[in-house]
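Exam revision sheet. Question 4 asks you to relate a sequence to its structure. Input first:
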Amino acid sequence: MTQEDTLDPFELRVLAVLAEKEALTPDNYPMSLNALTNGCNQLSSRDPVMQISEDTVADVLARLTERRLVNAVTAAGARVTKYEHRMRIKWSLEQDKLAVLTVLMLRGHQTAGEIRTRTGRMHDFKSVPDVETALQFLIDKYPPIVAKLALAPGTKEPRYGQLLGGEAELAREEAGYAAAAAASSAGGASRGDRVAQLEVEVQQLREDYAALAAQFAEFRRQFE
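Answer key, structure tokens:
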């Protein structure tokens, strides 16, 4: 993905929720701003869990609409504008590939087995190899929109991550996973070591938030 095509975490969440709800609650799709905000802030099936304001979601929708990744729909006589994603058109995705990509956008890096379990209501994969076929399609696209990650120490199955957020975000997420796995395996680590690890993670989160806030402020300045 080029820098211009890269999506920020809020954009990824909004797009993924639209794709998820299209499959899970078709009677309520396209989605209103309120329903979409609730979906973004949902506590289940989300990693990380977010708390996004309705105003922020509206700003994200405006950016995605400008990039033709979202379409605003206003039905005759309707009071509320609703929104639908255009991921299927943008990347020429059938439902099985869209389901895989959506779950990776919503829940981070996962194995093919985890993806199969979590896509059940969006697409019924008969086997893990069927998931791997869909993943390979996404990896083989140009530019690729999914990456296969190196085996982590002590693991037998590879994990996969989406590239829509850019390679830097992919690496950052993988580093966070590795740190969490190391902390979990080092059950006998001292309290000081655990506190030090938490401090590093908190600092990284602060830096990520500051970068995101700066991007958002720059975007808003364009309309002032």
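Marking note for examiners. The mean pLDDT is 87.
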